[in-house]
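All the exercises in this workshop are built on plain-text protein records. Instead of coordinates, the fold is spelled out as a row of discrete tokens. Once this layout is familiar, the rest of the handout is easier to follow. The record below serves as our worked example for the rest of this section.
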Amino acid sequence: MKKNSIIIGIIGVILICLVTTGCIFYNLVDASEFKSHFEELGYTVTSSENKDFNYETYYVASKDDQTYNIEYYEFEDEVDAKKAYQSFKENIGNYITSQAQNKETTGAVFTKIVSVSEKEYIVISRVKNTLIVIKGTNDVSDEIDSILEEIRY
């Protein structure tokens, strides 16, 4: 009986560690997965240059009938992704036309900020060495949330 409770206790500690560090809930989408996933959803995925950051891969997923684009950055390491995230966070006011409320969530392997103003809905989400940026409007906020939930960002 005592051995069973020790084993259950060890399993419980492991599960708590996985949940609190985000290892269970957050998924790292690499560049090829991002490209293929959004192409399957009917988006046009292009690779272009954004000289603001030191990234390895940069994709933009867009649709003709959408008012937003999904920017994907993959960096060599997590430090570069954190620097890019911080830069976007500091400059979020450049994308907002009125007073906004920002909600930031952080964990061991992820950071996410959602900025909601009268017109804009902006999400910047980092998981490990990747970053996704979506600058949209309030009328498509549910769609943006659904996209991010689908890929667990």
